[in-house]
From TrEMBL:
This is Alpha/beta hydrolase family protein. InterPro entries: AB_hydrolase_fold (IPR029058), Xaa-Pro-like_dom (IPR000383). One of its GO terms (molecular function) is hydrolase activity. Keywords: Hydrolase. It comes from Duganella phyllosphaerae. Residues 44-118 form the Xaa-Pro dipeptidyl-peptidase-like domain. Pfam families: Peptidase_S15.
Length: 220
């Protein structure tokens, strides 16, 4: 894995970010969004870094940015609107930089709100994301947008920042399953390996080595 720092001129000033490159040519693009900037969230948050490392291992080139007012990113917190605008700008930049590749959206906590909103924007524009991965989804904290049926949702059983019941109420009308990590708190202390494990297992695309026999039963 190689790391490349970047800075984009955004609507509120400089957007600070990092590209994490896989070995060999990338098979896709992944955008990672960090937790709430007013509560210590940065692109180096351990859940965000876990998502990054997981996607790099899957062969994706990953873009992480600091939201407005964090690190070297300029501007002030904009309650998700400006942050979504900035992530959309990064999306456009990445698509130009790596043309023809599918784009996955992933985020943690506040970052899930940003990515759910961006996902709806891309869908409306006719350029939908390949798939979403949302960890500690910010249900009832912010107005989460509807998400695709194949979204990977991971939540901690003992999350006292965003209670599991709130997530279930949000996704119940959408009929989307939630992967619940027993004993995990909001920040997944000592449980980060479950995030990597589940995303890796569930991330399947045409042409991947099959885990199933032709009749759909698990291979031995």
């Amino acid at each position: 894995m190689t790391v490349e720092k970047f800075a984009l001129a955004g609507a509120a000033g400089i957007i600070e970010g990092v590209l994490d490159h896989p070995e060999g040519a990338p098979r896709g693009i992944a955008l990672v969004a960090h937790p709430h900037p007013l509560f210590g969230g940065t692109m180096d948050n351990k859940v965000a870094v876990t998502l990054m490392r997981t996607f790099v291992k899957l062969g994706y080139v990953v873009a992480r940015i600091n939201f407005r007012g964090v690190g070297k990113s300029e501007g002030v917190h904009d309650h998700g609107q400006g942050e979504t605008d900035d992530m959309a700008q990064v999306h456009g930049w990445m698509v130009e930089k790596f043309p023809g590749l599918p784009v996955a959206l992933s985020g943690f906590s506040f970052g899930t709100y940003v990515q759910s909103q961006l996902g709806q924007r891309l869908l409306a524009a006719g350029t939908p994301a390949e798939r979403l991965v949302l960890v500690g989804a910010a249900a009832k904290k912010w107005q989460m947008a509807d998400i695709p049926a194949d979204t990977i949702l991971i939540h901690g059983e003992n999350d006292d920042t965003i209670p599991l019941v709130d997530v279930l109420e949000w996704v119940r009308p959408q009929d989307i399953p939630v992967l619940v990590i027993p004993g995990a708190d909001h920040f997944f202390h000592r449980k980060l390996h479950h995030i990597k494990g589940w995303v890796t297992q569930l991330w399947r695309r045409p042409g991947d080595v099959a885990d199933l026999e032709t009749d759909g039963t698990p291979a031995d």
